[in-house]
Every structure is written in structure tokens, then in C-alpha cells.
Design brief:
Layout lengths: L11 H9 L10 H8 L13 H15 L3 H17 L7
Length: 93
Amino acid sequence: MDSDWRVRKDPTWITEAAKWVKNLSDRALSESKLSFLAKGSNFAVVDKEVPITEFITATESAIVGSGLNEAEAEILRNKVCNTIRNNKARKGI
């Protein structure tokens, strides 16, 4: 594999990124920082696997700690379950 596969070969991307990124600091941005910022606010790193056990454990801890009644607790559990089911990173839940 090419050792610099992440490095962009086309220098025009810097000009395109500069249209979207406004540097308000007195420091110069590296190419990697400029590239990251040019992705915008809709960019997110997605885990390959959702930590389902941790979500369920944290939900139950929050329910116990907050003193929710049973109806409110069940609503919260359903929302968490729906979120986990609808996660595109998980297949076959």
C-alpha cells in the first residue's frame, strides 16, 4: 500500500477548502487541519460497532439515579432501543 495514500495529490483542494474555512486565529492551519475543517459540521467519526451494552447500562443507571416513574423510564428505554435499532452502523439487530 502506498505510504502516503491520505495525502491529496490535487493541489486545488486547498483553494476549494479555503472557500469554506475562515481562520480567525493568528496561527497557520496545516493541510490536515484545513481538510478536517473543510468537512463541515455534518462530519462525524462513526464507530464500527455500537457499544450497546454500555448504552443500556448507562440508561438504566440514569433511570435509577433520576428517580423517574415507571412510565417515564419505559419511554426512555424505548427511545434508546429505537436509536440503537435505527443505527446504520449495526446490521441485523
